[in-house]
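Ligand: iron/sulfur cluster. Inputs:
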Amino acid sequence: MEPVRVHITTYGCQMNRLDAELVAERLRASGARIVDEPADAGVLLFVTCSVRAHAEDRVFSNIGALKTRKRREPDLVIGLLGCMAQQYGDRLRSRAPLVDIVCAPGRLAELPDLIEAARTSRTRPVVALDPPRDAPGAPCGPTAGAEAFAAADAALDEVEIHRPLGGPSPGHAFVTVMRGCDNFCAYCVVPNVRGPERSRPPGVIVEEVRRLVGQGARQITLLGQAVNKYAGREGGRTWDLADLIETVAETPNLARLAFITSHPRAMTERLAAVFRNVPAVCPYLHMPAQSGSDAVLARMKRGYTAAEYADRVAMVRAARPHVAVASDFIVGFPGETEEDFEATMDLVRRMRFSQAFVFKYSPRPGTFAAEHYEDDVPLADKRRRNQVLLDLMQQVAGEDNRRFVGRTVTIFVEGPSPHPNLHPEKGTGEKGTGSFSGPMEKVPGSFSRRTEKLPAEKVPGSFSGRMEKGTGSFSGRMEKVPVPFSGPAAGWPQLRGRTPGNRIVVFDGPTALAGTEVDVEVTASSPLTLFARLPETT
Ligand code: SF4
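Predicted complex:
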């Protein structure tokens, strides 16, 4: 029988990217085929994000655009998965009538059955939701209700533990350390849609990391919504994130270990010390401040002041100077005045963030802020503050990036640059899309959507392992490229890598470097990118 052909579109954070990976693996194991192009698929799955209205609007719009195709192909199955599924539940029947499957984050392991049900049932959509946090009889308090997720978590663990190495880029894998969130920040739907905090047992995580590294992963990123609240139970004691990191870092051949996202309130001296004591830990901390105003932070229910946030950053940088700190900010939160916004600008200047993700506030249904605060900052002010803050971030990041020019940095190569014509003298260098010319030859052993479009090139070095065509991923072990380079070669594509501090570096090189660490010389910089070249000999 022809395998079911499935296409997956992913929105949102790293958790969603890992969810999509697990969905793909679960479906492959059940005999389905994951395809690159929606037009080739009979099942279209959307792994969705509910954190911002804009992200939801894009999903509804993209599903709405399938109306004509759905009329032409009545057997086409459309699945809406993840946070929006839990957020909207049954209401999707009226809000998105084309949807055939509604599947919450905790139920993703059931997708083969849900797809089968959607294909054979007359009753659509097929709905699989997580238990609501406020269900009658649900216990209250921290991690309350976690037991209701135990079966679903076990099913997801089973998929995650046995998946082959795929991940965000060659040689890099995400690993879930905890699910859910108990923080209930006033603006955020995550505690409602992903349920209470549940930490995976440390032994399971350590084993999963060992297996992924055994398959060729060199970089592991531990994931959790507030990852530094990790509290895994094993051997009659509770492990915190520092315990877990120290043990995971002992995995032979693991070069880089990162963890995201940290909550400022849960940053401890013990965790700060891993930046100093554990060489594999990347000097990178994603710890959202959200605002620099104490009044706004209190209304957001973040549980710290700007001074306390600055103390946490100082504590980390005392343990290891130059840790790159990235933050998220929300501008135009209810009641935010110009003085409040100026306090945020001041925090950015003082903390010298390496990156900041800036969002305009939009009320999310079911959150404390949506129910108790008036969305009273005019859109024009939100837009202006958004732009002013981004401009300041560009200035700060641009100044910091200039420090790298002339230095040699070790980068982890992700693969071809998504914007392959970045150049420091072409505008900001970040917006180029470029185009490919030259023969469209397949590069032996580098099957992926991106690399197939690259000009033909010679690939020095080699790797072994199984390469899957048409999925954009591979499994198997990537070997460090063994041959010396003698400088840039004509026809090399632009590759993208990252410094240990997560700064983006682009350089011309052979795609076989994907998944390896190499030293490059930084020749120029822009606020978002370092431009580099391979040294004369590597
Ligand atoms: S820590 Fe706050 S912002 Fe982050 S997921 Fe939890 S509730 Fe949302």
